[in-house]
Amino acid sequence: MLKYEGVDLNYSLEGKTAIITGGAAGIGWATAEFFHNKGVNLVLADLNPEVDKLAKSLGENAIGVPGNVCDAAYPAQVIEAGVKAFGQIDILVNCAGIVALEDAELISADDWNRTISINLSASFFMAQAVGKYMIDNKINGSIVNMASQAGVIALDKHVAYCASKGGIIAMTKVMAKEWGPKGIRVNCVSPTVVLTALGHKAWDGPVGDAFKKEMPSERFAEPEEIAAAIAFLCSKGAGMITGHNLLIDGGFTIK
Q1: How far apart are CA 34 and CA 59, in angstroms?
Q2: Residue 4 lies inside a defined structural domain of this protein
Q3: Active site (annotated) includes residue 161
């Protein structure tokens, strides 16, 4: 069951070990930096062959495991590396993802399948592997999956992305229901546009300015804001939160 372990007002994660997929860039890297400052041992999983070098730039308590999240053998490799380096895995943050923009009647089978494979299927199989590891080793762990406001509302040219992120939200709820009695909390976060390097490239300019006018916040999110929310969900302060989809959208979806 989800045991009450007290509330740490500092939301400390000191000594925990976290796997972060997509950890070499964007929200994944921002989360890695935030977790590092919270004393977390880091296992960064990323397609970037330089991910171990990037991880080591944070300190000795971080390693990188290069590989493809869609490779069936990869989750076990990442878990094994993390356990070998730090003893056990306490947290999983599924950040790896892509987007293919196209009208619903025009999107190719390749773009659809690749989006579903990376965003949804790979997140499931990584969470499945980590969840089974936690259950087998009786670890009270936390899993946070990366969904999106696109999993809650419809966005033009985002049919595959919306489908994949809606799937993440549903998957999260089922895992939370099944694994709560086994001591594992599973949540997801659903950001609006996040100003990573790719976010700036896609949304700086008139289109982004028009989009922001539809948001009560009148601005997009910074990567650190998403990382902070993820850290909270992994902390004792969120001990009674599971199966939740946390919208971090500046109020965009309330209309």
Answers
A1: 13
A2: no
A3: yes
Q: Chain centroid to CA 132: how far?
A: 18
The pTM for the full model equals 0.95
Residue 103 included in any domain: yes
Catalytic residue chosen out of the listed positions 4, 74, 133, 161: 161
| Single-letter amino acid code for the residue at 80 | E
Q: How many folded domains does the chain comprise?
A: 1
For residue 154, give its domain range.
Answer: 17-196+222-249
The CA distance from 73 to 56, in Å, is: 24
Read out DSSP for 41-91?
EEEEEES-TTHHHHHHTT-TTEEEEE--TTSTTHHHHHHHHHHHHHS---E
Residue 10 lies in a domain: no
C-alpha to C-alpha distance for 8 and 155, rounded to whole angstroms: 39
173: nearest Cα among 151, 140, 150: 151
Q: Residue-wise pLDDT tens for the chain (255 aa)?
A: 787 788 777 888 999 999 999 999 999 999 999 999 999 999 999 999 999 999 999 999 999 999 999 999 999 999 999 999 999 999 999 999 999 999 999 999 999 999 999 999 999 999 999 999 999 999 999 999 999 999 999 999 999 999 999 999 999 999 999 999 999 999 999 999 999 988 898 889 998 999 999 999 999 999 999 999 999 999 999 999 999 999 999 999 998
Residue 90 is which amino acid?
Answer: D
- CATH number for the domain that contains residue 232: 3.40.50.720
Cβ atoms of 149 and 169 closer than 8 Å = no
The answer to whether 38 and 14 are in contact (CB under 8 A) is yes
Whether 124 is covered by a domain: the verdict is yes
